[in-house]
């Protein structure tokens, strides 16, 4: 019975090749998400420049609304920065513990019982890294879906409503503002979908490592 149980676990466990594939997928998705976020940032910078060139600063209707939007966006970025710093600190500590345990595997060579225990701890440490990554990603997703982000969508909606009755904005500025609002919304949605993809990737790694 014991042998059958161990054999079943062995057959059900993920192979090193599968785990390597999981890691490769996670890295690939991270690079893709980073690239898309950079592209959205560049687009928003260009949108902001276009609005400035077409007289946003001199528009008494839109200027205070954009000031509120910038304040709420800055608050969100601060929260994101704090969350990233917390996750980075936790993962670095995990990686340090993993490196120490991997060294212990070498030091315990010749003691099969201890080496087996060391390898089990290595797996535990690797799983902890992934779980801390997931915790951090969920924290970012919470920030994205929090009241603070809701305020940003509210700000964008207020800008869109005001634009319809704004007699100071030229047609070019109105077009610029609409494009900016659409791009800002798309960027926020892209950020959320990217986080969800990475959470899925790291969760699969935890499952396969387990």
Rounded mean pLDDT score: 91
Q: How far apart are the first and last residues' alpha carbons, in Å?
A: 22 Å
Helix-strand pattern, N to C? HHHHHH
The coarse silhouette is elongated
Structure description:
This protein is mainly α. It has one domain. It contains six helices and no strands. The radius of gyration is 24 Å and the shape is elongated.
Key phrases:
210 residues, mainly alpha, 6 helices, 89% helix
Please give the structural blueprint.
Blueprint: H1 2-12, H2 16-53, H3 62-107, H4 112-145, H5 147-165, H6 171-209
Compact summary:
This protein is mostly helical. It has helices at 2-12, 16-53, 62-107, 112-145, 147-165, 171-209.
